[in-house]
Amino acid sequence: MKTTDEILEERGNVYGDFTLGSEVEAAMMNIICANHESQTGRPMSAINKIFFSKIVMKLSRLSVSPSHIDSWTDIAGYARLVEQHLIKEQNGRKESNNV
């Protein structure tokens, strides 16, 4: 079994420096949240920040290793999960409006 440090070293070799990647993620999230607020006049909801942060993390990693297929697959998966959440949320609103 690999140690945590061995796993982290492997990840670092694929995705680059963790701290630098985190700074890239933070900068991207700041831009996305600021744009949302300037366009809508309200801050982004916490759940939407989480949804974006998952994909932003993968984009940050892909900026170092754009051919890493797993990251592209993860983005597709996260997007599908958000889509499922939004569909469920919209269907719930339709049902409550019909009551």
The outline comes out as: globular
Number of domains: 1
SSE-based structural type: mainly alpha
The counted number of beta strands is: 0
Distance between the termini: 55 Å
Short description:
This protein is mostly helical and 99 residues long. It has helices at residues 4-15, 18-40, 46-62, 69-97.
Describe this structure in words.
- It is a single chain.
- This protein has one domain.
- The chain has four helices and no strands.
- The longest helix has 29 residues, at 69-97.
- The protein is mainly α.
- Helix 2 packs across helix 3 (46-62).
Topology, please?
Layout: H1 4-15, H2 18-40, H3 46-62, H4 69-97
Characteristic key phrases:
single chain, 99 residues, mainly alpha, 4 helices
